[in-house]
């Protein structure tokens, strides 16, 4: 089609010319620079790969593969059209295809781990169904930590998974365990941790022990005493299932739903826009008006030491590969490092935000050896999430998220775990593991590098959306937002101009982002459609780990709000570290 018609009323139509995808001027100039007589030869393309794309090891064979991939009739080279097709094609992604390349032989506490919260819920936290389907979906995405809340069933003779004290409908524990076994290693062969929030009597704990042992058999990790002095490494735990819970108290009856509903009046109202609320700013937002008040109970309450273990089924206790719990006392006691024992500590988002104000460096020190899990506050009934960077910049391994939700915070989570081959384990930067000097996220550091981003153009909406999806009377008015999520000093969002009535927006705008801690930085990219009378429409998003971003001109595929890749929508961008 060369023109597109929009009906304004019964007797009037508006007609718009459809633009044809054309290489931006910068691309044309580069083509001229590396070509002769309108053809870029194998040698010219190889030089382009080395000098512009910064692929230092690119060979003539690599150049020939590109020429073959665009199916151009010039066997010995490419013309401008074929060159542009390569640059904007799937063969030219923004992230390096390195597979698992981090050192996987360090203790588990040295890694950020892809972690789910209430992994069995299909929707909100109060009334949605419990199912194994969201568990399966999470595992397929590469999530490595699955949380199950286990309760006696209605007849007290079996075990269900549900969100206690709510109207969520239960699912049988055995169904969840079987699905975990089937899908655990579909996306990654590195270990899956099952965190159990236990509300069982000793006889049902024994039943769980039997279920777990029979379901997982030899792939179930059986810890030796050495595992409680230092965590084993992911490499040694490939294709293993690890159970993590605290030696629990006797079963406590669930509170009524009304108790939580009363508490909800004091919670944050969530009014996510179509693409999700903006990620909370960490620049001083958690510093003011916080007292050291840690009296309220967590999901995993204070450990009573040996007393809490008297009623524990011994076969259940032997399953625990990662011990969880809190010692008596306040935050200082919780974060005390025991050189002879490692543990997993859990803390709510709210408590953690308060803790980083007064105990930030202690948290970083604690997470060198021990595992810390931070989970969403109880008032997030809509299964929304918080800014994960507040956890990562303090060394938190298990930043637990509601994976069934959507929004900008979850996009950051997806982006972080695209790193290291998508295996679900990302090695923490050395500065978070340094025993000589404790990293302090509040201190502004000097700029290490600057990322220069050129947003050339976008395409694909015409094929992936109905022609009236964005505007009933005209083609869309797109703009892009580009920025950084990272430590407070690095975090920023910038915006292109709005291009009216164009399915093929060509912005050609350049942005620069100084980075003080590039190791923790994520590149945020969003496209929206401007609407005068209503909220702007969502047009795609992606988040990319800066640590694995490729230099050069790249085709950047965009994803839906739920994190599903569009068939055709992508941006042409250039990345340069200067």
UniProtKB/TrEMBL annotation:
Subcellular location: Cell membrane
Stored InterPro entries: C2_dom, C2_domain_sf, EF-hand-dom_pair, PI-PLC_fam, PLC-like_Pdiesterase_TIM-brl, PLC_EF-hand-like, PLipase_C_PInositol-sp_X_dom, PLipase_C_Pinositol-sp_Y
EC number in record: 3.1.4.11
All residue ranges annotated as the C2 domain in the record: 427-560
Obligatory cofactor(s): Ca(2+)
Start and end residues of each PI-PLC Y-box domain: 346-432
A single BP term in Gene Ontology: phosphatidylinositol-mediated signaling
Keywords attached to this entry: Cell membrane, Hydrolase, Lipid degradation, Lipid metabolism, Membrane, Transducer
One term of GO molecular function: phosphatidylinositol-4,5-bisphosphate phospholipase C activity
CDD domains on file: C2_PLC_like
Keyword Membrane on entry: yes
UniProt feature, compositional bias: Basic and acidic residues: 253-271
Reactions catalysed, as given in the entry: a 1,2-diacyl-sn-glycero-3-phospho-(1D-myo-inositol-4,5-bisphosphate) + H2O = 1D-myo-inositol 1,4,5-trisphosphate + a 1,2-diacyl-sn-glycerol + H(+)
Membrane topology designation: Peripheral membrane protein
CC terms in the record's Gene Ontology section: plasma membrane
UniProt region (Disordered), positions on chain: 253-287
Full protein name: Phosphoinositide phospholipase C
Species this chain originates from: Gossypium australe
């Amino acid at each position: 089609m060369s023109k597109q018609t929009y009906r304004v009323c019964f007797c009037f139509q508006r007609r718009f010319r459809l633009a044809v995808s054309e290489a931006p001027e910068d691309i044309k100039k580069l083509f001229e620079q590396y070509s002769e007589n309108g053809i870029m030869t194998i040698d010219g393309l190889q030089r382009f790969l080395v000098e512009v794309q910064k692929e230092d090891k690119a060979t003539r064979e690599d150049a020939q593969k590109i020429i073959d991939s665009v199916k151009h009739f010039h066997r010995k080279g490419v013309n401008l059209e074929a060159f542009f097709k390569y640059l904007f094609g799937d063969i030219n992604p923004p992230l390096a295809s390195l597979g698992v390349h981090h050192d996987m032989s360090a203790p588990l506490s040295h890694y950020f781990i892809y972690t789910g919260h209430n992994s069995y819920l299909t929707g909100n936290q109060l009334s949605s169904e419990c199912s194994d389907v969201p568990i399966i979906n999470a595992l397929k995405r590469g999530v490595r930590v699955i949380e199950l809340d286990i309760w006696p069933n209605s007849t007290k003779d079996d075990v269900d998974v549900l969100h206690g004290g709510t109207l969520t409908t239960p699912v049988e524990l055995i169904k969840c365990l079987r699905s975990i076994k089937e899908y655990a290693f579909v996306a990654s062969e590195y270990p899956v941790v099952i965190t159990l929030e236990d509300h069982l009597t000793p006889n049902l704990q024994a039943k769980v022990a039997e279920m777990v042992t029979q379901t997982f058999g030899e792939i179930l990790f059986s810890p030796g005493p050495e595992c409680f002095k230092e965590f084993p490494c992911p490499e040694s735990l490939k294709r293993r299932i690890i159970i993590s819970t605290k030696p629990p108290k006797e079963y406590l009856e669930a509170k009524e739903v009304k108790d939580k509903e009363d508490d909800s009046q004091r919670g944050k109202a969530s009014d996510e826009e179509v693409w999700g609320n903006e990620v909370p700013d960490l620049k001083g937002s958690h510093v003011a008006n916080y007292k050291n008040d840690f009296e309220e109970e967590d999901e995993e309450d204070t450990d009573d030491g040996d007393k809490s273990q008297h009623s524990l089924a011994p076969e259940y206790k032997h399953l625990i590969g990662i011990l969880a719990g809190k010692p008596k006392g306040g935050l200082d006691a919780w974060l005390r490092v025991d050189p002879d024992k490692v543990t997993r500590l859990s803390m709510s988002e709210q408590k953690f935000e308060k803790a980083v104000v007064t105990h930030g460096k202690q948290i970083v020190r604690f997470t060198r050896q021990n595992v810390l899990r931070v989970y969403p506050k109880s008032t997030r009934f809509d299964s929304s999430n918080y800014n994960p960077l507040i956890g990562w910049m303090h060394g938190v391994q298990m930043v637990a998220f509601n994976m069934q939700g959507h929004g900008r915070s979850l996009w950051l989570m997806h982006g972080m775990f695209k790193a290291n081959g998508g295996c679900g384990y990302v090695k923490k930067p050395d500065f978070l593991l340094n025993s000589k000097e404790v990293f302090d996220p509040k201190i502004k550091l000097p700029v290490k590098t600057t990322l220069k981003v050129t947003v050339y153009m976008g395409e694909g909406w015409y094929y992936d959306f109905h022609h009236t999806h964005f505007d009933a009377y005209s083609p869309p008015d797109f703009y892009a937002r580009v920025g950084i999520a990272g430590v407070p000093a690095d975090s920023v969002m910038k915006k292109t101009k709005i291009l009216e009535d164009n399915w093929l927006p060509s912005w050609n705008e350049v942005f620069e982002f100084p980075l003080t801690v590039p190791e923790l930085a994520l590149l945020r990219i969003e496209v929206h459609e401007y609407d005068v009378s209503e909220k702007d429409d969502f047009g795609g998003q992606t988040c990319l780990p800066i640590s694995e971003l490729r230099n050069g001109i790249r085709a950047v595929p965009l994803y839906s709000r739920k994190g599903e890749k569009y068939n055709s929508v992508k941006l042409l961008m250039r990345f340069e570290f200067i």
